[in-house]
Amino acid sequence: MIATSEPAGRSPALGRGEALVLLGALGALVAVNLPELGSDPWPFRPPPAEPRGLLGPLVRASGGEWGPGLLRAGAALAGLLVAVVAALVLSLGRLRRSLAVTTAAVVVGLLVVPGVALQVGLREATAPWFHDNDSTYQIEIAGELVRSGESPYGHDYSRSGLERFYSLDGSVSPGTRTGQVALRHFAYFPGTPLTAGAWGVLPAPLDDYRVLVALMSLAALPAALLFRGPLGPRLALGAGLAASPLAVRAAWFGTADAPAVLAVVLAFGLLMRRRHVGAAIVLAIAVLLKQFAVVAVPFFATALLWRARRRSLVWAGVAFAAVLTVGFAPFLIAGAGALIADTIAYGGGTYRIIGYGLAGMLLEAGAIDDRFGPYPFTILALLVWLPLTAWLVRIQLGSPAVWTAAAGFAASILVLLFIGRVFQTSYLVWPLAASLLAGLLALSENSPLPAEETVPDEGSGTAGRSDEASAADAYPDPLRGRA
Q1: Could you tell me if 139 and 273 are in contact, meaning their C-beta atoms sit under 8 angstroms apart?
Q2: Of 35, 365, 421, 450, which is most buried with the most CB atoms under 10 A?
Q3: Do 114 and 142 fall within a single domain?
Q4: Cβ(228)–Cβ(271) below 8 Å
């Protein structure tokens, strides 16, 4: 098992300073989330809601309509809880560890869960093309195709029900079936339809894919405990991963980055625990879930070079390749061209220009005439992003510090998103998560694993040492001297 407990003899409570750091971070999350909760939803014009099922009482409490009232009331309760616990800390001068964990969990839950529950309930009370995002709806349809033995790539979605989303009132607008390019492409790597296929067997309304996304968002908080370091800062960073405004909005609005983001965080956490093969497997799952996770691979690999022996490196590489092969193979066999066209060519050159990245700026400046016109993403990636990423990886090769790998990942993914054809605000969850991950890694590296909790280097056949000893002492140059 992976040891996540603190050393024997630890204090049963957080000191005043550490507790106030945690509560300050939780209070800041409440403050930045509260004014934005529930804002800017899709302007659907659904029929009157008919509350039913598990979430029927919540739908009735909302008046059968989407609104920020219930969501912001939950956030206000979270803020009140933070204030009460802060008063307790100021009075007693400490905060019990169990209460610190409980407070963080409740605050994160009150920020993430209400919006998802209300959206899912309203969708169940109307129709599947209301109170959802088109990407999440298409992911669910793709999951149905997987369960029936069909490939979601190259599939025609124009009569799947998804076409009713775009009118916002459930009708099929003239030209939608022929003019909406999203109806002819599925933009996600195979891990997403595979997880949707499995999740979709649950009874309604739990089969809504956003429920899985919300659970993965919530799981980022305990995932932070996989790293070492003072509990207060770890909980603060974990709460930031789980309940940043980007993560909270993604959960109810329907952008499905959380599972892949969580997998990247877990991969680095397992790396710090010297579970190299497990870390490689989890990183491969992240890649299967979202293309953006590919950017983390070279930074993870350079960190692994510093911390693993040759045998572990080989097994980690084999495991990573095996998971990707198993995930991609069925869809490549079913139609490699369709998979490539949907997941790579579509986002890079087919979809319309969106957002205020470089492409949007050039469009606004008149340098590009049409949102559907040509844009030199491939050239920019080769001339700008690839050299920058290579330079950042080269820096990481010269440093045993793993937190710099996460920082390099944050810089690389931000530049890639900026020069892309599509720059959705939701994409910023990736550089934000990588930055918070860098903080967790820095904490972990400054808190070596106690001798009684060390584990052997997988595949090395030798007793494990602390991570820092393994990296800095055993391999002063990661490219030489492998035993």
Answers
A1: no
A2: 421
A3: no
A4: no
Exposed, middle or buried, 273 (CB in 10 Å: 0-12/13-18/19+)? buried
Assign residue 70 a region: left if phi > 0, alpha if psi is -120 to 50, beta otherwise?
alpha
- pLDDT at position 5 is 42
The sign one gets for the Cα dihedral 449, 452, 455, 457 is: positive
The residue to which tokens 């996989």 are assigned: 226
Residue 221 and residue 313 share a domain: no
Q: How far is CA 197 from the centre of its chain?
A: 19
Domain presence at residue 404: yes
Q: Per the structure, how many domains does the chain have?
A: 3
For residues 466 and 450, give the distance between their C-alpha atoms in angstroms, rounded to a whole number: 7
For residue 33, what is the enclosing H or E element? helix 16-33
Containing structural domain, residue 328: 268-423+448-483
Token pair listed for 464 = 């494990």
List the Cα angle 60/170/245 in 5-degree steps: 60
175 CB-near residues (< 8 Å, 6+ apart):
none
β-pairing verdict for 13-15 and 94-96:
antiparallel
For residue 355, list its beta bridge partners.
423
How many whole angstroms separate alpha carbon 55 and alpha carbon 206? Answer: 10
pTM, rounded to two decimals:
0.90
End-to-end CA distance of the chain: 26
